[in-house]
Structures are given as C-alpha cells and as structure tokens.
Design goal:
Shape: globular
Strand order of the largest sheet: 1-3-2
Number of helices: 8
Distance between the termini: 12 Å
Number of strands: 3
Helix content: 40-55%
Radius of gyration: 18 Å
C-alpha cells in the first residue's frame, strides 16, 4: 500500500508506532522505505538510553551528546506536526520578549516559534526551559552559534546529564552562568510529548484532508 492511500487513522497509528522489532510492525510498514521517521528515531534512541519504559537513573547516559542531538531532533520533528489553537504569529511577540528578558540573544523565525509553542503547550515545559532548549536546538541541530546570553555572559557553560532531579538548573557564578541539563528528565518530557501530541492530533479534525496531509512527511 502506498502512503498516500493510508487513512488518517493509519497515518496517525503508523507515525506514532512504538519501537519494536521489524517483524512486529504492521504489514504496511514491512517495507523499510515506508517506516516513519519518528518510529525509527525512537527505535535508535532506545539503543542508547534503554527501553522507553526505563525510568530515571543516576547512571550517566552514553553517549550523552548523541542522545541530546537525537532528542532535540525529535522535539523538532514533533513541533513540525503541531498546529496549536492559538496563532503562532500572534504569540510571536510574547515569545521574543521572553527570550530577550532571559538574556537569550536570538531572533525567532517561524520554525522557532512553533518549536517554543510545542514545548510549552504540548511538552509542558516552563518558559525558561523552553527558551533554553530553543537556543540549544538551534545550536546543536541547526549549527547556529550558541548565543546563551548577552555580551556580558559570553563565558557561559553547559553541563548535560548530571545527577539532578529537575530538567534544567541555572547557576549564577559571578558574571557567568552554568546551565545544567538532566537528560533523564529530557527523555521523560520527550516521551510524554509524543503521547500528548498523538492525543491532540487524534482529537482534532479526525479524518480531515488537512490532517492526513500533515502526516505524510513522516510516513
């Protein structure tokens, strides 16, 4: 079966299919060329951070940078499928003001607006966490310079995968800041956002042509 003939429900089910062995996939996905990007990403991430059901551990994730890259790409992919009830354009000014207020030297483009909205509305990150991950995503995924703060904070540092029980901790060290990111908590938020987005898509205009087309890029 060709992807363009899938129903909306099939697109939704296939796109959000959990990691599994190839033989356990639906027959339509036995052709490797039809396997959804999100499914493939989740499968490969399990090979790095363990089963999705595995909860918080004080043991370090390995390799942490590749895991960070994978999860940020995952958030990026999910945000591309998100169309919130509120207008992205209408939310732009508040998002830009938030970044400026937190000292993040970055100008939002359309994908950045959707990414930040997704993190706050679907992944339920707070505004500061969303602002930080937006800047980190631009640097790690899209190779922008890492503008974490204004000129007076050029010597900021980032520590990932520390033994802390929160997603993001910021320490002020004189005129410098240390951003501490917990990858186990990021994994939890990433997986929760997958479930939340699937529910949102299922409940919004089921069967509509617009939603079916929306799923096409990832099938």
């Amino acid at each position: 079966m060709h992807p363009t003939t899938f129903s909306f429900e099939q697109h939704l089910s296939y796109c959000f299919h959990k990691p599994c062995q190839p033989n356990d996939l639906p027959v339509d996905l036995h052709n490797p060329e039809l396997r959804p990007i999100l499914h493939l990403l989740r499968r490969d991430l399990e090979g790095l951070y363990g089963a999705e059901s595995e909860t918080y551990s004080h043991d370090s994730m390995k390799p942490p940078f590749i895991l960070l890259l994978g999860m940020l790409c995952g958030f990026d992919l999910l945000s591309s499928m998100y169309y919130g009830e509120e207008s992205v354009s209408a939310d732009y000014r508040r998002a830009q003001e938030l970044l400026d207020r937190n000292g993040f030297s970055i100008h939002l483009h359309e994908s950045g607006k959707k990414f930040r909205l997704f993190l706050t509305k679907v992944a339920h990150l707070d505004e500061q966490e969303a602002a930080f991950l937006l800047v980190l995503r631009n640097s790690v995924v899209h190779t922008y310079s890492l503008n974490l703060d204004k000129k007076k904070y050029r010597d900021n540092s980032i520590v990932i995968d520390p033994p802390i029980d929160q997603l993001l901790k910021i320490e002020q060290l004189g005129n410098k800041k240390k951003y501490i990111l917990n990858l186990w908590e990021l994994k939890k938020r990433f997986l929760e956002s997958i479930i939340n987005l699937q529910d949102l898509l299922r409940d919004s205009l089921p069967g509509s042509e617009e939603r079916r087309i929306l799923m096409n890029p990832v099938t």
